[in-house]
């Protein structure tokens, strides 16, 4: 599932680029053989120093995949760092896979809305769901992970797999509700990585392949802390297979050229606009801000919203400082209207922004594009070269993607 690691103790880490760089510096010496040997062990809350802790920042691109990989390959031979390189590439694979099949996200969102409505009306389903989310099932390990997630915004990657498997195959709860539980509470909750990882565990990503949590595996990789013997269904079949849509050509628009008075809009998927094609324009004004509508629609926990809010504020300050222009914090309650108000007040003829990946921020950005068009202001979409080069390669499984990504990994210096 997500290569998503953050120290799970105390308050959330700062959602700033400075904090990301500090975390990267501390992890790089450990990213080789030590990481490969220890990465699967879940030592419990506050004891996750065997993993990187970088994904909340990568998810919002306060630090980019290319930056992280450049630092790691500069310190370790490729073969020693291969396990970590793969974990970072999984993120781009999932994003690309979903970009080629956006209907899968729409199907998930529609099913989730239906299931939430059913749970509200169905007492037994609601009680089973509440027991799972609150950690009151009686299953050793599972309950502890549910509490850790809610309290810290974190779960170790291996625990995420165990948790999702138990949710689907032992508790027999809909996988969409489990993916939603993760997305609402994870500081690094990513629409593609989270949704598609749950599909993979369920056996919906690769025909005939699913992930079953086993008591012996949990005992081994938690150092004996958890022992759910005779509590798990270790023989369950994968969920009924449904052929996913065929991959389509990604919708990448040509990079916007220079021209006209331009405003830069920072969105929640990429908070490093100053180091991107969009940021290389002659920028007259910069804006960013959290969206309460987005938070309410996806019922995001306040710590997740607070992390996203701080990341946007950090990105706004850096981008405005880089461009030497005013910084405008958008109104959270009326985000779409505030984008239009900002653009008109700044007197820009167009807005540029990095196109978000499939998910909530893309939906918000599409609404902003339509609202700007109504007042005669265009929104010109920019895309990082990393995404342009990698996402179209996610046509099949991960290992075919990994092979196709070799030219990109051999030229990391080309990417922001």
Structure report:
By secondary structure, the protein is mainly alpha-helical. Helix content is 50%, strand content 6%. It is built from 19 helices and 5 strands. Helix 16 links the parallel strand 4 (350-354) and strand 5. The longest helix has 22 residues, at 302-323. It is globular. The protein starts with 16 loop residues before the first helix and ends in a 7-residue tail after the last helix.
Q: Helix and strand string, N-terminal first?
A: HHHHHHHHHHHHEEHHEHEHEHHH
How are the strands of the biggest sheet laid out side by side?
3-2-1-4-5
Quote the CATH topology of the largest domain. Rossmann fold
Q: Could you say how many structural domains there are in total?
A: 3
Q: Low-confidence parts, pLDDT < 50 over ≥5 residues?
A: 2-9
**Count of extended strands:** 5
CATH class of the largest domain: Alpha Beta
Tally the helices.
19
Specify the CATH architecture of the largest domain.
3-Layer(aba) Sandwich
| Shape type | globular
Backbone CA Rg: 21 Å
Supply the CATH superfamily name of the largest domain: HUPs
Tell me the distance between the termini: 25 Å
Structural class: mainly alpha
- Profile the largest sheet: 5 strands, parallel
Q: Helicity, in percent?
A: 40-55%
User: What oligomeric arrangement do these chains adopt?
Assistant: single chain
As a percent range, the share of strand residues is 5-15%
The pLDDT mean sits at: 94
């Amino acid at each position: 599932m997500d290569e998503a690691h953050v120290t799970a103790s105390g308050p959330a880490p700062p959602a700033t680029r400075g904090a990301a760089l500090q975390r990267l510096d501390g992890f790089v010496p450990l990213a080789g053989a030590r990481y490969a040997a220890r990465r699967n062990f879940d030592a419990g809350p506050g004891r996750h120093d065997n993993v990187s802790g970088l994904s909340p920042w990568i998810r919002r691109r306060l630090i980019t995949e290319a930056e992280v990989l450049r630092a790691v390959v500069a310190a370790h031979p490729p073969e020693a760092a291969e396990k970590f390189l793969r974990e970072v590439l999984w993120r781009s694979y999932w994003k690309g896979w979903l970009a080629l099949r956006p209907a899968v996200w729409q199907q998930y969102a529609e099913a989730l809305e239906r299931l939430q409505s059913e749970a509200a009306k169905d007492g037994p389903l609601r009680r089973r769901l509440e027991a799972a989310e609150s950690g009151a099932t009686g299953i050793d390990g599972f309950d502890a992970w549910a509490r850790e997630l809610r309290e810290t915004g974190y779960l170790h990657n291996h625990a995420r797999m165990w948790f999702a498997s138990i949710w689907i195959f032992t508790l027999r709860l809909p996988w969409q509700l489990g993916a939603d539980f993760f997305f609402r509470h994870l500081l690094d909750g990513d629409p593609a990585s989270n949704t598609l990882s749950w599909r993979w565990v369920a056996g919906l990503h690769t025909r005939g392949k699913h992930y079953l949590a086993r008591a012996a595996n949990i005992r081994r990789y938690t150092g004996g802390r958890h022992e759910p013997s005779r509590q798990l269904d270790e023989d369950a079949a994968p969920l009924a297979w449904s052929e996913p849509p065929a991959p389509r050509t990604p919708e990448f628009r040509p990079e916007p050229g220079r021209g006209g008075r331009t405003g830069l809009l920072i969105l929640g998927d990429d908070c490093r606009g100053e180091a991107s094609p969009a940021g290389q324009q002659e920028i007259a004004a910069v804006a960013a801000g959290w969206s309460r509508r987005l938070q309410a629609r996806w019922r995001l926990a306040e710590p997740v919203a607070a992390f996203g809010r701080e990341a946007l504020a950090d990105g706004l300050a850096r981008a405005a400082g880089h461009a030497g222009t005013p910084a405008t914090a958008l109104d959270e309650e009326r985000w779409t209207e505030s984008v239009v108000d900002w653009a008109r007040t700044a007197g820009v003829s167009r807005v540029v922004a990095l196109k978000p990946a499939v998910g909530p921020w893309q939906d918000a950005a599409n609404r902003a594009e339509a609202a700007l068009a109504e007042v005669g202001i265009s929104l010109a979409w920019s895309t990082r070269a990393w995404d342009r080069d990698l996402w179209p390669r996610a046509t099949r499984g991960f290992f075919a993607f990994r092979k196709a990504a070799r030219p990109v990994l051999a030229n990391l210096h080309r990417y922001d």
